[in-house]
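re: that chain from earlier
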Amino acid sequence: MNATILNAKMEHHADSGYVGQVQFTLESHKSTYEITFFSKKGRDWDYSLSFTKESGSEEELLAADALIEEDDELFDQLLDAVEAHMNK
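^ sequence. v structure.
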């Protein structure tokens, strides 16, 4: 599935590690999403998915989360967008 990256940013805090957010849309989805990535050392990433602005369809949010879990290319695309801002 194609994702369109709208915005990405990354912050590093000595005590909590890296935190990055990517705002994006998915084709055929009505909502805009924000994925927040978390990593202590910038290698193993956890994430949280939410709506960017207004709440949307819970079914679409769950489908988007399932896509991110199952589609390595989509996960990597989103992670690459935030990692591009790691050293800025």
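The mean pLDDT is 92.
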